[in-house]
Amino acid sequence: MYVCVCRQVTDRQIRELCRGGKNSLSEVRARLGVASECGKCTKFARTILNEFNRPVSDPVVTPAYAALPEYHAA
């Protein structure tokens, strides 16, 4: 999916850079041009970067609906 329409950058391209060790918005911007024109993609680009920058010890957040009794009914 396109993250940056101005520069035709996809989420896949950002994730590939992150896997290669580019873990900051400035590094991704320098390489792909993300968030360098209109800036509307900045928030989504940061969300993708956060997937890779989250410490391993961070717990996975359980959705609020998981606490509802009907969620567990089979």
Describe the structure in your own words.
By secondary structure, this protein is mostly helical. Helices cover 45% and strands 7% of the residues. The chain is built from four helices and two strands; from the N terminus they run ββαααα. Strands 1-2 form a two-stranded antiparallel sheet. β1 (2-4) and β2 (9-10) form a beta hairpin. It is globular and about 30 Å long.
Topology:
Elements: E1 2-4, E2 9-10, H1 11-19, H2 25-32, H3 42-53, H4 69-72
Antiparallel strand pairs: 1-2
Helix pairs in contact: 1-3
Task: Supply the key terms.
74 residues, mainly alpha, two-stranded antiparallel ribbon, 4 helices, 7% strand
Q: Average pLDDT across residues?
A: 83
Low-confidence stretches: none
Our Rg estimate from Cα atoms comes to 16 Å
Beta-strand level of the residues, as a percent range? Answer: 5-15%
Q: How many helices?
A: 4
Helix content, binned percent? 40-55%
The helix/strand class is mainly alpha
Strand tally is 2
Shape: globular
Instruction: Give the CA-CA distance, first to last residue.
Output: 35 Å
Strand order of the largest sheet: 1-2
The main sheet comes to: 2 strands, antiparallel
Q: How would you describe the oligomerization state of the chains in this entry?
A: single chain
Strand/helix succession:
EEHHHH
